[in-house]
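FORM 7B: Structural annotation worksheet

SECTION A. Query
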Amino acid sequence: MGLTVQKMIDEGYSLGAGCNRPRCFHFARIDLAMLKAKLGPDHSTMAPALVPKLRCAKCGGKDVGLIIHPPERGVDLRAGRPNAN
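SECTION B. Predicted structure
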């Protein structure tokens, strides 16, 4: 099973989306809190479940790809400071 919206938030992941249209190639970070509010905390963030719901904010295209950014090791992104471990 892939990552859910809530699991990504809890574990410090971030999510980006990029337009694949040759004259656009717009990229943006996805606001996970807004995604959670719209789709629910248990919605999958894997491409087959999420991409059909996305549209490029710049050109309106539906040919969008996802990039999952794992949390940085040794940094608590929610607190903005290094982890104690």
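SECTION C. Observations
The two ends are 27 Å apart (CA to CA). The longest helix spans residues 32-39.

SECTION D. Sign-off
Analyst initials: ____
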